TrEMBL record:
<dbReference type="Pfam" id="PF01501">
    <property type="entry name" value="Glyco_transf_8"/>
</dbReference>
<dbReference type="InterPro" id="IPR050587">
    <property type="entry name" value="GNT1/Glycosyltrans_8"/>
</dbReference>
<dbReference type="GO" id="GO:0016757">
    <property type="term" value="F:glycosyltransferase activity"/>
</dbReference>
<keyword id="KW-0808">Transferase</keyword>
<protein>
    <submittedName>
        <fullName>Glycosyltransferase family 8 protein</fullName>
    </submittedName>
</protein>
<dbReference type="InterPro" id="IPR029044">
    <property type="entry name" value="Nucleotide-diphossugar_trans"/>
</dbReference>
<dbReference type="InterPro" id="IPR002495">
    <property type="entry name" value="Glyco_trans_8"/>
</dbReference>
Length: 345
């Protein structure tokens, strides 16, 4: 009788849940979305849906010679490392996807699909009064598509990586870094900041975690010779998607000269999450990422680097680092060539 009672309760619970889901679907509600404020207040991250994200936009090379489109090859390297390479792949259940802007060729999209990654088409973010935003280089204009990450509320947290990125081991541990959790937005009594005219409301809680960039490979571990300790690296950051934050960022884009437009989304994010503002960005541990790494960084357990495999002007005489970067490119190609030669037989 007890067993029957328990089973009966489970049946009722399942029926209630099914009814609630049906109501949500009828009303057009997104049952897979996460409420950032509720998760933050709960103090737990159980049931989270995590993701790694990259962005593929048109590059200088628009030819069909994909092997010589270095940024495209770099994107494939990160995908291979996150999805397939045993030494670096993610095993925490996180999705891996590439945001793709409309100007990316079909040949590039098809190659990425063949590599096994999820493709997410996105439009570059624009606002009615954003004509004042003029990037340092025309190709950087597409980088405003990164702001779309804050719309993706089906995920609780997303780690964004630029294409020119290389891993040495798994990055999954960064999701357990103490500074990659949501924190309360400061009020004016706690932070001496001034809101701009036309600025949209702030979210109740937020997440933006990153690191500053080193000047070159001549640094200790952890690095101290940072370009600007207050300025975060726009090629490596973790965020919590939030539609309130998305609208807030768009409102800043619409305010002329609110940030340094030459560096596009990086300066926008740095302004919104400025250290003296209401939502200061948090610093992760240095082991997760370094720009311009050296051999000592490798010995200290560096996990990843924001570095181009095809050119290393500021790594200087760290030959082991240079050799590693070049080798990863050919390891990736050899892995895919080997897999595809088997499937084609």
């Amino acid at each position: 009788m007890i067993a029957l009672s328990i089973n009966h309760k489970r049946t009722i619970t399942a029926a209630v849940l099914a009814t609630l889901v049906t109501i949500c679907l009828v009303l057009g509600l997104r049952t897979t979305s996460y409420d950032p404020v509720s998760l933050w207040k709960s103090g737990t991250h159980k049931g989270e849906r995590l993701a790694y994200a990259l962005l593929m936009a048109s590059t200088v090379d628009q030819s069909e010679d994909l092997e010589n489109d270095y940024y495209f090859v770099a994107t494939r390297i990160v995908i291979w490392q996150l999805l397939h390479n045993p030494a670096t792949k993610s095993t925490n259940g996180a999705d891996v996807f590439v945001m793709v802007t409309p100007d990316v060729s079909e040949s590039r999209i098809n190659r990425l699909k063949k590599d096994g990654v999820k493709i997410r088409p996105v439009e570059v973010v624009h606002t009615p009064n954003d004509a004042w935003i003029k990037p340092q280089q025309p190709r950087l204009a597409a980088m405003m598509a990164k702001i779309r990450l804050w719309e993706m509320t089906e995920y609780s947290r997303i780690l964004f990586l630029d294409s020119d990125f290389v891993l040495r081991s798994s990055l999954d541990g960064v999701f357990d870094d103490p500074n990659t959790k949501r924190v309360r937005t400061l009020d004016k009594a706690m932070s001496n900041f001034t809101q701009l005219e036309g600025e949209a409301p702030l979210p109740e809680a937020y997440l933006l975690a990153s690191l500053s960039e080193t000047s070159d490979s001549n640094h200790d571990f952890p690095p101290t010779n940072l370009n600007s300790p207050e300025y975060m690296n726009g090629g490596f950051f973790m965020l919590a998607p939030d539609l309130v934050m998305f609208e807030h960022m768009k409102s800043i884009m619409d305010i002329e000269h609110s940030f340094n437009e030459r560096f596009m989304e990086q300066s926008l994010i740095n302004y919104v999450h400025r250290k003296e503002g209401p939502m200061p960005w948090q610093e992760t541990k240095e082991q997760w990422c370094i720009r311009y790494p050296n051999e000592n960084d490798f010995e200290q357990g560096l996990v990843s680097m924001h570095e181009k495999w095809w050119t290393q002007p500021y790594i200087y005489d760290n030959q082991k680092v240079k050799d590693f970067l070049r080798a990863v490119r050919w390891e990736m190609k050899g892995w895919y060539d080997g897999r595809e030669s088997v499937t084609d037989v």
